[in-house]
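Notebook p. 47: complex prediction with cobalamin.
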Amino acid sequence: MFRIGAYNRAVGENSVFALPYHESTMALLILSTPDMFDVAFRKWVVSKTMEFGSFDDVAESISSPIQNFLEDRLEVLCEKLQEDEEIFEILHDYSMTPQRRPKILMQTCGHVAGAAFYYQPRNFQEDGIQWPAAGRMGPNLKFIGLSLHPVYGGHFAFRSVLIFPNVLIQDFCEKVPRPILTAVEDVREALEKFNYNWKDSGFRDFGNPSRRYSTTQMEFFGRPVSERWEVLRPWIDGGAKNID
Ligand code: B12
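Predicted complex, structure tokens below:
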């Protein structure tokens, strides 16, 4: 939980990312943990296969399975809030403005809420050394920061933020996030793995997480979107024995 004012102060009150709410407005950040995929999403894939008749039919009809699954799950929550006549706005990690700018910066939210420590490259530079080295990222890609969670390391994702414009929590004090890595070299290594080798999920293990993604989940998120459905086929074809 955090106040919009705390987020706006971090991104810069006059920045394009500042959100237009009273500074004491309550916001709730939703993260997904390893079980989101390995338990809940798996059940959803099985039920969709039964509904559509075959795995191939589901794969053909649903192009963004994780997004679709999360929308189904959040719909239940939103209906409940609407029943209670609560006014709220929901922003997702993938919510973009018409100019294709993220509507909300999830890593900043995570840090401000005290949920996950956000390691930003600019804080780990050294005088006289050019780090990160120029020219290693693909076209139009920036060397970006990484958030690490005290329990999950990098085995989690930010999903959504619920904003309640009528709920003002003036006296609330956000939690301070726990630093996960102490040595600057470890931070640089984690950031390099996240930016140069994210497909192998190695960055997720920094901070010694006690809960981790399954191999299926790591493979799924390491693949291009068009190849992801295929990773899930064993869930249906092989039954329970193919679940790790
Ligand atoms: C754009 C984006 C991409 C793009 C571009 C990535 C790139 N390398 O250029 C694409 C689509 C390619 C991409 C790919 C991936 N992404 Co991505 N991506 C994003 C997205 C939507 C926005 C990031 C962004 O543009 N930020 C804008 C810049 C300006 O923000 P910033 O640098 O933090 O600057 C702000 C802060 O510095 C703040 N600030 C200033 N001072 C201070 C002080 C403090 C204390 C604080 C807290 C803040 C603060 O103010 C600045 C703004 O004014 C976020 C989701 C989201 N909505 O946030 C996910 C996100 C960063 N991606 C994520 C991931 C996991 C990935 C992938 C690994 C996907 C995958 N398959 O699993 C890959 C590869 C990552 C990589 N290293 O490139 C995760 C990272 C999770 C984590 N643990 O940190 C995020 C958060 C999504 C999520 N659902 O969790 N991604």
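Notes: Helices lie at 4-11, 34-52, 55-61, 65-83, 106-112, 184-196, 215-222, 228-237. Residues 12 and 29 are 19 Å apart (CA to CA).
Next step: compare against the earlier run before touching the bench.
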